[in-house]
Specification:
By secondary structure, this protein is of the alpha+beta class. It has helices at 18-24, 43-52, 102-119, 179-183, 189-210, 217-223; strands spanning 34-40, 59-66, 85-91, 124-126, 130-133, 136-148, 151-161, 230-234, 240-247, 253-256, 262-265, 271-274. Helix 3 runs antiparallel to helix 5.
């Protein structure tokens, strides 16, 4: 019988190393070059260094601990050792730079799939890319790109997943959780990452077929916790409220206003908040 969420004590037998990770990866290109580090400033920064040094498409950087982990808009991301999953995949796509923003939603979809495969937990996505369980954030994603007009040098997609029991800063304690608390058992970071990479490779190839999210639309919208809920859109031009109806094939959030008019909200330009809480 599973213990209650607050009774569970995490196991410590997760042999987190490059050999174990490599043996579990079943992908053809995602993570076939694996860079594992016990400690790094940031997996995104290291992935950029790898990409700029000629590392191939699909290079995966994994660390047990980050000393300068970052979230969106430069916010710090607590990254203790032996606790969470921190990784970044470096991509060198041939499509136009304006399509790269969709990769963030693609990774959210793949991460939710991978978490479900490893833990049995059914995750939701708070648009555009936060993974939530029981209304609380369990995963964050940060995508960064190096490009010039019409050409992408590289894109790095960094993911941080709360896996083991931890104490969150006061400002986010009520909005965050961890996987082992939610599923009541030890979660292997190795298997979790391998599952996410398999899901990502599959989703990425579906994305390439149309260069948009058409092939993932149904799955993403099914996971979207904002869907059919009232949201507040914090637009620099003025906030407004409406009901989220799902995403478009290019990743915008469709919000229906009280008048019945539908507007498309672009990720990165505005923030979306639930009326009654985090989601």
């Amino acid at each position: 019988m599973l213990k209650g969420r607050d009774e569970y004590v995490s196991g410590t037998n997760d042999a987190y190393n490059s050999e174990e990770l490599s043996s579990l990866l079943k992908t053809r290109w995602a993570g076939r070059k694996l860079v594992y580090m016990d400690q790094v400033d940031s997996t995104n920064l290291q992935a950029k260094r790898e990409a700029e040094s000629g590392a191939p498409h699909g290079t995966l950087v994994v660390a047990d601990m980050q000393t300068a982990g970052r979230g969106r808009r430069g916010r710090g991301w607590e990254s203790p050792s032996g606790t969470n999953l921190y990784f970044t995949i470096a991509l060198k796509p041939s499509f136009a730079p304006e399509k790269a923003s969709m990769l963030t939603l693609l990774m959210a979809h793949a991460a939710a799939r991978g978490i479900r495969e490893e833990t049995g937990l059914v995750c939701g996505i708070k648009w555009p890319n936060d993974i939530v369980l029981d209304g609380k954030k369990v995963c964050g994603i940060l995508t960064e790109m190096s490009a010039e007009i019409g050409y992408i040098h590289h894109v790095v997609i960094g993911v941080g997943i709360n896996v083991r029991k931890q104490v969150f800063p006061e400002e986010i304690a009520a909005k965050a959780t961890w996987l082992e608390r939610e599923c009541g058992r030890t979660v292997s970071r190795n298997r979790l990452l391998a599952g996410i990479m398999s899901a990502f490779e599959e989703d990425y190839e579906r994305f390439l077929a149309t260069e948009d999210l058409t092939g993932l639309l149904e799955g993403y919208n099914r996971m979207l916790v904002n869907r059919d809920r009232e949201v507040c859109v914090l637009d620099p031009k003025g906030e407004f409220r409406g009901v989220a109806r799902g995403i478009t094939p290019t990743g915008e959030l469709v919000v229906e206003l009280e008048s019945g008019e539908e507007v498309c909200v672009y990720a990165g330009e505005v923030s979306v908040r639930g009326i009654y809480g985090y989601v």
